[in-house]
Design brief:
Layout lengths: L2 E6 L2 H12 L6 E7 L14 E7 L3 H16 L4 E6 L3 E7 L4 H4 L4 H15 L7 E6 L2 H23 L3 E2 L5 H11 L5 E6 L6 E6 L4
Parallel strand pairs: 5-6
Antiparallel strand pairs: 1-3, 2-3, 4-5, 7-9, 8-9
Amino acid sequence: MRSVEVSAKTVEEAVKIALEKLNLTEDEVNIEILEHPNKGFLGFLGSKNALVRVEEKYDPLKAGQKFLEKIFSFMKLEPTINIVEEDEYTIFNLSGKDLGILIGRRGETLDSLQFLLNLVVNKNLENRVKYIIDVEGYRSRRENTLADLANRLAKKVIRTGRKVVLEPMNPQERRIIHLTLQDNKYITTYSEGEEPYRKVVIVPKKQA
């Protein structure tokens, strides 16, 4: 967070100069008066200017956007960032050209970037907020793919009576599998193994 100390004849003038230096508005900063002006003896002997410290308020969304833009500049990418605030989380939606590199194999790069974003943005917050990064609807498409996979494998388990072990998935993707099949009367699911190789297992209920 940027801050400046400015001295001027009045507090108001000092604050104005500080805001111009930071290129911010008054509602975007915290203002601390370090010294009040003093006219001195006879209005000029020993007079002192006002001294203020003006500090930029911490804005998690702005911090998140700056962090992503810095990474994108190193990667020579220029995606458009659209921020949507939901009740329980905030989504950074990315759109633009050649963004497949941000997704990676089955979203691994995107998940890593999202993890870093949450570390950076929440470091100065007592009440942590969950931040999600999506690239042109990838997460929705991936969720539909996983739901279809879960239903297809559940039918196989019911038909053969044998359990199916899925490939390792991150917690978010395992949750999609569990939620998709939670109301199925004939099978149940659980996770086994240690991260990052933890897997979902689908078994007939009679075996469970």
